Amino acid sequence: MKLEAMLRMIAGVVVMASVLAGMYVDSRFYWLTLFVGANLFQSAFTNWCPMMTFLRKAGVRS
């Protein structure tokens, strides 16, 4: 799997899990959803994302 596809998959899973956790566990989990969205938003302008750096170091190919 390529880097961009893996990043989108991870972001989607984290968003879905945090929304479900916010609904059924504690509403503070919505902050995680906001963090992921804000991170994706800033990466559109800066072309840098912390998760991409981590995935590159883990050996995921571009």
Structure report:
- With 62 residues, the chain is mainly alpha-helical.
- The chain has one domain (3-56).
- 76% of the residues lie in helices and 0% in strands.
- The chain has three helices and no strands.
- It is elongated.
- The mean pLDDT is 95.
Overall radius of gyration: 13 Å
Q: How many domains make up the 3D coordinates?
A: 1
Sheet-strand content, in percent, reads under 5%
Order of helices and strands: HHH
- Based on DSSP secondary structure assignment, what is the total number of beta strands? 0
Shape: elongated
Tally of helical runs: 3
Low-confidence stretches: none
The biggest sheet amounts to: none
- What structural class do the secondary elements suggest? mainly alpha
Helical content band = over 70%
Question: How far apart are the termini?
Answer: 9 Å
Average pLDDT = 95
SSE inventory with pairings:
Elements: H1 3-24, H2 30-46, H3 50-57
Name a few traits of the molecule:
76% helix, 0% strand, 62 residues, mainly alpha, 3 helices
Task: Describe the structure in brief.
This protein has 62 residues and is mainly α. 76% of the residues lie in helices and 0% in strands.
